[in-house]
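Possible regression after last week's pipeline update?

I re-ran a chain I had predicted before the update to compare outputs. Posting the input and the new output here so someone can diff against the archived version. Not blocking, just want to make sure nothing changed silently.
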Amino acid sequence: MLTMKINNGLNLGIERYEKKVRLVVLDRKNELACRKEIFSNLRKFIAAKEAHAFKGRLQLFKQGKHICIEVKGEKLRTVAAITFGNCLSKLKAE
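New output (post-update):
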């Protein structure tokens, strides 16, 4: 699992799950939110200028070159789209 630090002890984990990608927001050992999605949908999301991904507890918002991570309606962090894309590429190569 690849992880990115979000804030205050929260991490975003990205891992393969069968033929999909599993995105998990972790609070040290506990999973707070999770979403499974296929690689191609996440690639389209990253390529878009502005987009919104997912409904529910974990949501991603793309604005230009940045992706905002939101959990339970609270914006936690903005990461560079290229960083997120690089993580997906590493998973795809495995």
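Follow-up from reviewer: compared with the archived run. The beta strands are 2-7, 10-17, 20-27, 30-38, 50-53, 58-63, 66-71, 74-80. Marking as no regression found.
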